[in-house]
Amino acid sequence: MEGSEELESSLLTQPWASVCFGESTFLAKASFRDTGYILLLSDLSSIWYESADAEVVGQRSKELNKRLTVHVSSFLHHLSKLMCPLLAGQQDTATSFSCHHTASSLNLRVKSELSGLPFYWHFHCCPAPLEMVSRHLVRPLIRMSLALQCQVEELTSLLLQKDAEIEDYRESGAALSRDRLRTEPFQEETFQQNFMHETLPQVFGAGEGQKFTSALQQLYVAVTQQEAKQVRKRQHSEDTEGPAPTAETTGHSCLLSPSQEDERTSSIEGTMPVSSPAQKPRLPVAKAKPKKAKGLFS
Questions:
Q1: Which of 40-54, 197-211, 278-292 has the lowest mean pLDDT?
Q2: How confident is the model at residue 239 (pLDDT cuts 50, 70, 90)?
Q3: What phi, psi does 32 have (nearest 5°)?
Q4: Of 106, 100, 105, which Cα lies nearest the Cα of 22?
Q5: Sign of the dihedral defined by the CA atoms of residues 167, 171, 177, 179, in that order
Q6: Which of 28, 46, 63, 158 is most open to solvent, judged by the fewest CB atoms within 10 Å of its CB?
Q7: How many CB atoms lie within 10 A of CB 33?
Q8: % helix / strand / coil in the chain, to the nearest 5?
Q9: Strand ranges inside 64-148, DSSP E
Q10: Cα 164 from Cα 170, distance rounded (Å)
Q11: Which of 281, 156, 169, 150 is nearest to 222 (CA)?
Q12: What does the alpha-carbon distance between residue 7 and residue 36 come to, in Å, rounded to a whole number?
């Protein structure tokens, strides 16, 4: 059970990636450890998963690869090497994937090589429980939307401050050297209306949204790592400092290693504005004392 919890914690902070199996497109994420693996797949209509421990992997490997006699950890490591490039958009041409799914199951079949011999693997996925769907998709997406709303409010505030600064320069007698750089004062209500009527239809026209951009993947990782930190804080006593990592077992998590996750979180937390949605600072256009602008508009 402990190994399963470590896998689940590791999987949480792995970003969703867009993958194609034939003509079908899925969102996928996976985590591989020496103790087993967890795979999540979604076509935005359903979500399937498989959680397999070392015993299951060992038994299935004997059934599918009778000529191969390697340790279970070697099978898991090889599966990680096959899946991680796929999730990173760098599928190996020597590896083939095929997907067959019904309303109650999804089977992902992999064909490759290991030690010069054919290697086969079947992921037997079933519908994911609601708690898993909520933890890995619903809650992170809601928190991402709140974080992006905070970012929009911060940017709106900065635009209004810039407009106030520009107006002050103009009233001081400064003039643009290139008229093409002139902009109109930012109007938040007009911007929102244009976004709803012009930009939003373009977003929906670009496809069904089965793709996380790099920036959204980074934001997803940051949000889920924050949730993981909160979980660890609740699990430890209040006087405990420096909670232990979510997984101590040697692992092969796709896309991000634990150290990369920490580095990315630090980077994102340093650049991602954090503010309360209820706070929307607005700087009024104040008329400052006349002064000479040196080199800014000349």
A1: 278-292
A2: low
A3: -120, 135
A4: 100
A5: positive
A6: 63
A7: 24
A8: 45, 20, 35
A9: 96-101, 106-114, 117-127
A10: 10
A11: 150
A12: 8
Three-state SS at 15: coil
* Sheet containing 17-21, strands listed edge to edge, beginning at the edge strand earlier in sequence: 17-21, 24-33, 36-42, 47-53, 117-127, 106-114, 96-101
Asked if residue 195 has pLDDT above 50, the reply is yes
**pTM, full prediction:** 0.72
Model confidence pLDDT, tens digit, residues 14-39 = 999 999 887 788 999 999 998 899 99
Amino acid at 119: F
**Mind giving me the DSSP string for 133-150?**
HIIIIIHHHHHHHHHHHH
Nearest to residue 56, comparing CAs of 75, 81, 69? 75
User: What is d(CA 275, CA 22) in angstroms, rounded to the nearest whole number?
Assistant: 43
CB atoms inside a 10 Å sphere around CB 19: 22
Q: Which positions ≥6 away from 93 have C-beta within 8 Å?
A: none
In tens, the pLDDT along 148-160 reads 999 999 999 999 9
Of the candidate ranges 9-23, 157-171, 186-200, 274-288, the one whose mean pLDDT is the lowest = 274-288
Distance, CA of 245 to CA of 261 (rounded, Å): 11
CB 4 within 8 A of CB 53: yes
> Higher-confidence residue: 115 or 81?
81
Angle, helices 214-235/139-171, rounded to nearest 10 degrees? 120
Per-residue exposure over 58-68, b if at least 16 CB sit within 10 Å of its own CB, e if not: eebbeebbeeb
CA angle 163, 167, 171 (to 5 degrees): 175
